[in-house]
Amino acid sequence: MSTTTVVSPSIANEIPHVPEQLYLVERAKFAENFNRRPFMLDHSLSGHPAFTMDRLHSLLERSLSIPKKVYWNAGKKRIDQRWDDRPGRDFSIDEAFRRIRETDAWIVIFGADRDPEIHDLLEKGLAEVQEMTGIPLSKEAKSRECIIFITSPHRVTEYHIDRECSMLMQVYGKKTIHVFDKTDREVLSEEEIERFWTADTNAAIYKPHLQSRASSFLLEPGKAIHIPINAPHWLENGDDISVSVNQNFVFLDQKLGNVYRANYYARKMGFTPLPPGRSQTRDLIKAHGMRIPNFLVRRAKAIGKTLQRKEAQ
Questions:
Q1: 253, 170, 264, 272: which is closest to 218 by C-alpha?
Q2: Which of 31, 99, 120, 201 has a Cα-to-Cα distance from 88 of 20 to 30 A?
Q3: Domain boundaries, the chain
Q4: The architecture CATH gives domain 9-251
Q5: How far apart are CA 204 and CA 162, in angstroms?
Q6: Using CB atoms within 10 A of its CB, is residue 144 exposed (0-12), middle (13-18) or buried (19+)?
Q7: What is the pTM assigned to this prediction?
């Protein structure tokens, strides 16, 4: 018999405005599908005071001075458009927020869990996910983060894949998300995934003739969707502005990512590498073998940034 996760009322009462449950879903359904396939569930953040437009504007202002914590663009977008192909914007982000209904804007606040109240909410969500899946994400997750998306009416979010495993919660407005099967290699080839993990975050290529293979979900306040790692998807907003809260976890980066990185370089050398999951031994060798190159790349980037700062002084 399926059960739902319940958090002790005494714990919930210790934190202001924390609901008794964040994710409202059958435990068996959640565990069976987590990071395997997309599925809908209910959540209890709709109408929460942490996500009013006034509070979000305050969070946005506090985030602007922190590097890489805010991204935005404005203008019409195509489904197949690259992230780095940005529409023009001849006004400020503050104006984009204030006139969000008419600016065709997409505003992203990363690390929104810097806000103490949002942090407590997401920690509660993490505890529920851990309990339902049995995965110790607080230990295994390389990183976890809350991202808030504030979007103009009818705005399209481009086709892409992510390295994170996500819980996308709709708190205001409506949007439709189209999610593809991450194991369908006609939709998403091994080469595309290899390039994504190694060289190009825009490596996933939208194929309009395969759109019918997507599962489409209507997100409205109180509804959420789970998006597995590397599941291709794109979104289209409804007639009103949209506010979505995303809780994500990076917990397979070193294992899965390193295998794909090793396959990327093997393919460059003329080999036809075995995809992940076909051989546990080969996957283990690839995952461990990429640790040193990855470390050297990170060190080289850090040294380069240090030298640039010294030259600028």
A1: 170
A2: 201
A3: 9-251, 256-312
A4: Sandwich (2.60)
A5: 10
A6: buried
A7: 0.86
